[in-house]
Amino acid sequence: GINAEYGLDSNSFGISGLKLMGARHEGGKLKVTEDIMSDLVYTKISWIRICDVKEVGKKITLPVYLNNMRTILVETLDFPTDEDKFYQRGVAILCTSLS
Q: Which parts of the chain sit beneath pLDDT 50?
């Protein structure tokens, strides 16, 4: 089933259709790009207890907004990265590109 295909378990869920502004997902990490927006085809979101978190290197916490107006913050999510210019570039995730 789809749960096995995407590695979903009882502590996670998958969502499609999210938009990434100012960055792209490549090789399991986020990269700053000149592109205005890119699609996150399928995103796995997991709840992990803080005591179970394994350090995997540098990470960035990005805001998830309802739309491109950026007035309604839905959540923040952590992503692995090797770069550090995300905040200066205003990188964010949108649930929809519609305003």
A: none
